[in-house]
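pasting ADP-ribose pyrophosphatase for the record, 177 residues
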Amino acid sequence: MSYEVLESRKTYEGKIVTITVDKLRMPDGSEAYRETVIRKKNAAGVLAVDTDGRLLFVRQYRHPFREMLLEIPAGVIEEGESGEAAVLRELEEETGKRAGRAEFLCELYPSVGFCTEKIQLFFATELTAGTQKLDADEFVEIEKYTLEEAIAMIHKGEIKDGKTIAALFAWQARKNA
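structre below
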């Protein structure tokens, strides 16, 4: 099947996202419009595992949902930075922990209907004390749970973040392989 972008019109450009409206030629020759939110930078998240096997999470306010959500540490991959370097940086910035080892788990497209963002997921071990460096407008609470507790929290609707759910199930599958 063939899709052709006939025109692309930028309707908004911000610090994190650019919004475009694209006119497409569909496989049957008809034309259609698609609104697309394009994230300028991709992201990476990390499931950090301490020496007791407990997983580190951050609880932070997410304005679109007006809720404090429980998530794995994550953030944008800066220009020229690898996903692994990004998660090691984000882990320390958000939790004050450094990881001696990080391994790739998987990559996901969190919102394929309107967003080009890709998120690389890692797990990290060999945690040591580092320095927490939160942004001025970033307020987080650090929480720890076992894998079993976290999976139960998904089923109870207490963990709702997609990247966190994906990381937990990917980690569970890896451990059971």
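Helices lie at 83-95, 147-155, 162-176.
The radius of gyration is 18 Å.
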